[in-house]
Amino acid sequence: MNYSIQNYQHHLLIDNLTKIFGEFDSKMLEIIEPQMEWIEILSGQILFNQHDEGDCLYFVISGRLRAYIETHEGHQKIIGEIIRGETVGEMAIFTDEKRSASIIAIRDSTLVKLSKEVFKQVLQAYPLVSLNVTKIIISRLKQSQNPRTVIKKPVNICLLAISESVDIQVFSQNLVKSLTAKVKVLFLNSEQVNKLYGSENIAQTDKQDAKNYQQLSRWLEEQEANYQIIIYVADSTATQWTKRCIRQSDEILLVGDATQKPVISEIELDLLGKNHQTGVQQTLILLHDKETHAPSKTDKWLHHRKMIKNHYHIRPELPTDMARLARIISRTANGLVLAGGGAKGFAHLGVFKALHEFNIPIDFVGGTSAGAFMSSILSFDLSPERAKNTAKMGAASNPASGDYNVFPFISLLTGKKINNIIDTTLREIAYQDVSIEDTWLPLYIVSSNYTKACEEVHTEGKLSKFLRASGAIPGVFPPIIHNGDLLVDGGTFNNFPTDVMNNLGIGNVIGVDLRIGKVHNLTLEKIPNTWELIRDKFRPKRKRKYRLPSLISIILNTTILYSTARHFQTRQCTDLCFNPDVRKFGILETKSFNKIYDTGYNHAKEILSAMTEKELERFRNV
Predict the structure, then answer these.
(1) Helix axes 370-378, 346-357, angle to 10 degrees
(2) In terms of DSSP bridges, do strands 485-489 and 480-482 run parallel, antiparallel, or are they unpaired?
(3) How wide is the angle at C-alpha 365 spanned by C-alphas 362 and 350, nearest 5°?
(4) Distance separating alpha carbons of residues 371 and 349, to the nearest angstrom
(5) Quick one: how many helices (H) and strands (E) in the chain?
(6) Bridge partners of residue 69, in order along the sequence
(7) Coil, strand or helix at 434
(8) Integer distance in angstroms from the first to the last C-alpha of the chain?
(9) Which secondary-structure segment (H or E) carries 404?
(10) Range with the largest mean pLDDT of 9-13, 212-216, 533-537
(11) 3-state DSSP call for residue 355?
């Protein structure tokens, strides 16, 4: 093994041992090190299964592992990933319990194994080690209660062209340029590996040439230690280098030409088909011309690619698109979450304008009800001015005016006006039957499933349909039927869905919350009768005796009681939260568009102006 690699791995092992045992002397190292076993585990190989005996712990020297559990329904639920410099399996030997999860390698990995027997020897010889173990257990418990997702950033990214027209070398180099502004990046294709390593065809070495194969593996591990991200660019065919790129990667980017047919390419069939299942995350990148108005037919690309977790639409000629992809890959992207609130949601666009003025880019959007509608507008990468004008055009028509049902069996309003607003808006920014998958910025919409009594998160399907569902206030607008279920306003279960954005592994979650948490206690002993309330209405506002919510307010707020109860939890998921005071505006007060918009803008500008440059830098092109 190359000395520098061996030296690096040894130091990494010492760091791992220190995390478990605390500070220790050379005598302890002399006891432990000879009894540790170095092992290599291939991509897709299971390290151990849930409920196995916990007879050892492992130190991850290189690679990436995934932990998952079997649910009561028989499904596999991913609970986390373990990366270089971390440990796996220690809780079982700490507590003498069976394995709580299964562990699988999602790329080729190097581990060091420490048996339970050796661990017990250390505890007997060094009783103070137990204090450090206790601290680790307490830290894990605290971490499990943290609402924010811990992001395990990918190190090795494989780029694989799936359309013949894609020049993957040029695209990759442009991506590296965008990434270099944020992190230390190394570009590796087969030619570059041969050049840097100093051997004519070392990149194409296969496992039969064991010596050279292992030496190249160790050399790549050394590069991984020196760079934050390595871009592995696969060949156009299933060469040995291409196969290594896939086995070595934390994430595979499948790069396709959006103007071509969405057929499965030969290289996908050869290396990512049914006989080559891998746990590595696969992401689809669809390339567009810079003049493309809006993406379309994305569902055709996704239909046969079931392993795709995320997809992104990129116009390579636009620096802003490449910068967005770089933030997404480096896990420093900004996600904007917009709460529901009817006409009060115009404040969202004012906040967006302020963010734009402070050079804070938005890469993901999501929301509920009015927040979903505003998110959909922003998802088509509009300027603040065009976003404002588009929303204002819709606001010109009050969705409740003259739209009452003659026989309100299901809802007070027919919903025709709100449907027309949605359709007109989508025609303006994209096209009427556009799908959620076809937005420039990734978008999610939250509705409530009345049939199953749960929230629904929509990331695919017709955008107009789920905008209607997300804003279908129970009793006011008609519900939407989807897969045999009734969908209603998302605010019933999750009016401020920051937790959804958080679970996407976004670098920064920015939220706009329209709820003001002031509670007004009533001094009344009982509700006044109708005549008392009528007389009170004729008094000057300051002299009124009864400050009670209106009938419509009681109905609307009752529908979001559960969402309100979890409000503290969703606020905890934000890194930056705006809370403009729009209480004086009604949820149907569309005529106050400019005032509501300015309220959001002025509030956000005040918050951002009070932040230091260092605080702002976190949300800029970080």
Answers:
(1) 40
(2) antiparallel
(3) 65
(4) 10
(5) 25, 22
(6) 77
(7) coil
(8) 37
(9) none
(10) 212-216
(11) helix
148-174 burial code (b ≥16 CB/10 A, e <16): ebeebbbbbbbbbbbbeebebeebbeb
Helix (H, G, I), strand (E, B) or coil at 365: strand
Number of C-beta neighbours around residue 188 at 10 A: 21
How does pLDDT run across 176-194, given as a tens digit for each residue? 999 998 789 999 999 999 9
The per-residue b/e assignment along 604-620, b for 16 or more CB within 10 angstroms, e otherwise, is bbebbeeeeeeeeeebe
Between 412 and 442, the more confident residue is 442
121 membership: H or E segment, kind and range: helix 116-125
Dihedral angle at the C-alpha atoms of 375, 377, 382, 386, nearest 10 degrees? Answer: -130
Please provide the DSSP assignment of 446-482 as one string: EEEETTTTEEEEE-SSBHHHHHHHHT--TTTS--EEE
DSSP letter, residue 216 = H
Please give the pLDDT value at position 521.
Answer: 60
Residues in the chain, overall count? 622
Q: Is 423 exposed, middle or buried (0-12, 13-18, 19+ CB in 10 A)?
A: middle
Compute the 3-state secondary structure of the chain and give helix, strand, coil in percent, each to the nearest 5.
40, 20, 40
- Kindly give, in sequence order, each residue whose CB lies less than 8 Å from that of residue 4, ignoring residues fewer than 6 positions away: 222
32-46 pLDDT per residue, tens: 888 889 998 888 899
Which tokens is 270 given?
Answer: 């050869």
Whether the CA torsion 570, 571, 575, 581 is positive or negative: it is positive
Q: Which of 180, 309, 175 is nearest to 232 (CA)?
A: 175
Neighbouring-strand partners of residue 509: 335
Q: Which runs of consecutive H residues, i.e. helices, occur in 473-592?
A: 491-494, 498-502, 530-537, 551-559, 561-565, 567-571
Q: What is the pLDDT of residues 564-617, one digit of tens each?
A: 767 778 888 999 999 999 989 888 888 999 999 999 999 999 999 999 999 999
Rounded to an integer, the average pLDDT of 53-63 is 89
- The answer to whether residues 280 and 106 touch, using CB atoms and an 8 Å cutoff, is yes
This prediction's pTM:
0.87
The whole-angstrom separation of Cα 142 and Cα 599 is: 38
State the chain's mean pLDDT as an integer. Answer: 88
Judging by beta carbons within 10 Å of its beta carbon (0-12, 13-18, 19+), is residue 529 exposed, middle or buried? Answer: exposed
- The tokens of 60 are what? 């991850």
CA-based torsion, 386, 387, 388, 391: positive or negative: positive
